[in-house]
Amino acid sequence: MAALDGKNVLVIATNYGVEQDEIVVPTEQLRERGASVTVAAQDTDLIQTLVGDRDPGKTLDPDTTIATASAGEFDALVVPGGTINADNLRTDQQAIALVKAFADVGKPVAAICHGPWTLVEAGVLTGKTITSYPSLQTDVRNAGAEWVDQEVQVDGGLITSRNPHDLPAFVDAIEKALTA
């Protein structure tokens, strides 16, 4: 029996601009650990990932749309980065509503790199300590949180990491939150 058998994880992304490893690695590794992972995008078109925010990466088929996903069906939410992805997600009211819904009931919300921009927009950072890509420091502080520079930061149900190099610790922290 795998550690995450019976756990359902939702990953949200836009259809263009998500950092390849920040969506592929957590999705694959959580599945390998037994979780059922659903990828939701803004629409049903292919997700075009990028490497380093500019070079085309793999394409992925979303399983559903952000609009039809419901926090009640899942045990955790993962928000990958990629500057373009994160900038567009933070203006997507349905994505913001999902982040709020998970946070409001204390379900883990994991965001990496620029992904924490959605946490800023969702208003769930007050009094929290998180990490992110360094350029988000001011946004994080203005949202009422403390920013720290470390590979993974867990504060309550929020799990955050800085960049693709932090993915091993990020995925381990998601697993730990789901098995606690």
Question: Could you give the count of β-strands?
Answer: 12
Termini separation comes to: 17 Å
Helicity, as a percent range: 25-40%
Oligomer: single chain
Largest sheet: 7 strands, mixed
How many distinct helices?
6
**What's the alpha carbon Rg, rounded to whole Å?**
14 Å
The topology string of helices and strands comes to EEHEEEEEHHEHEHEEEH
* Parts with pLDDT < 50 across at least 5 consecutive residues: none
The share of residues in extended strands comes to 25-35%
Structural class: alpha/beta
Strand order of the largest sheet: 6-3-1-7-8-12-11
Task: Name the overall outline.
Answer: globular
**Average pLDDT rating:** 97
InterPro entries: C56_PfpI-like (IPR006286), Class_I_gatase-like (IPR029062), DJ-1/PfpI (IPR002818)
GO molecular function: hydrolase activity, acting on glycosyl bonds; peptidase activity
Pfam families: DJ-1_PfpI (PF01965)
GO biological process, one term: proteolysis
Folded structure, characterized:
It is a single chain. The chain has 180 residues and is of the alpha/beta class. It has six helices and twelve strands. The strands form three sheets. A seven-stranded mixed sheet has the order 6-3-1-7-8-12-11, with helices on both faces. A three-stranded mixed sheet has the order 2-4-5. The chain is globular.
Which structural traits does this protein have?
about 180 residues, globular, alpha/beta, single chain, seven-stranded mixed β-sheet, three-stranded mixed β-sheet
Give a short synopsis of this structure.
This protein is an alpha/beta fold and 180 residues long. The protein has 6 helices and 12 strands.
